[in-house]
Amino acid sequence: MRRSFVAALGTALFLLASAVWAGAPNVPVLNWFPCPGVAPGPECAIAQVPLDYDEPMGAQTYVVLARYPAADQANRIGSVFVNFGGPGISGVNRLLSGFGQTMASLLQGRFDVVSFDPRGVGYSDPLQCFETEEQRAAYLAGLPSFPYLDEQERHYFEVASGLAPICLERGQPIVSHMSTADVARDMDLLRQAVGDERMTYLGFSYGSYLGNTYANMFPDKVRALVIDGVLDPLIWTIGRQIASDRVAVQAVADEFNRLCDEAAAISPALCPMSGPEGAAATFDSLAEALKGTPILL
Questions:
Q1: Does the pLDDT of residue 146 top 70, yes or no?
Q2: What's the confidence (pLDDT) of residue 23?
């Protein structure tokens, strides 16, 4: 899908660039086209937005978005914008991979379901930290998805902390304009571009921080905002999210075990994990058993 999408993107960008002039409006004009490489139904578009919002008529960048149009156009309410988190998850790919169709059905066909690749990500003027995909793969070779062993932590930290200088030294214009505030400003332009008076938004994980940021920057432009997997905005902003994660995981596990035991006291069927010694003991016993005899899927 990516190759056909990139080809279509190149054509659309050429047409977009030819329409740019000094007095172009700030609100993007969206020319929707069938998303390439997927079954008929979803539509894609490219929005031109300022690279630097301090100079809105200066250099431009672009944001790629996708939508499942409302099936019930006669009773259509508006658009629901979705961010899947990361930061850095491709909203376009995730929307087109089944979520958009499911969400549209849950909303009874009365909303367009819209997502986008945030600036610098995926199809949206992506930040390129390596010359080739092979170089990227070589840099990340052997790195676990998450360092669950003590001996993995130092290497994981060194590789992750070394990535930012590699990206910065390439001098790409987008690298200085990828803040959450920039993405929130893009969202407000996209809201206007789809014709919604106010924003209806669903955000997961980092998307909760983006939603909170949007609501604080444009408080009178929010119709409805739902956030799931909520991040502490202060901890995220000061770069202490990883410390919070380590504490929070144990806190969540402890609370689950407590609630499980509480429910089992009413009826064992409500939480079978709570055995004679409690849910925590059951978990520990299961973990030890799996260390000795792993289950291979």
A1: yes
A2: 42
CA distances from 178 to 50, 126, 189, 297 (A): 12, 10, 16, 39
Q: Which amino acid is at 104?
A: A
In the numeric block, which tokens belong to residue 282?
């059951």
Predicted structure pTM score: 0.77
**19 contact partners, CB below 8 Å, separation of at least 6:** 29
Are the C-beta atoms of 284 and 290 separated by less than 8 Å? no
User: Which residues, 6+ apart, have CB-to-CB distance to 144 below 8 Å?
Assistant: 152, 156
C-alpha torsion sign, points 69, 71, 72, 74: positive
Please check whether residue 83 is in contact with residue 51, taking contact to mean a CB–CB distance below 8 angstroms: no
Integer CA distances (angstroms), 262 to 200, 258, 268, 275, in order? 38, 6, 10, 12
Q: Any residues with CB less than 8 A from the CB of 61 and at least 6 apart, and which?
A: 48, 49, 50, 51, 119, 124, 125, 173, 174, 177
Q: Which of 46, 59, 60, 40 is nearest to 9 (CA)?
A: 46
- pLDDT for 14 beyond 70: no
Q: Give the number of other Cβ atoms within 10 Å of residue 206's Cβ.
A: 21
pLDDT tens-digit series, residues 47-81: 999 999 999 989 999 999 999 999 999 999 999 99
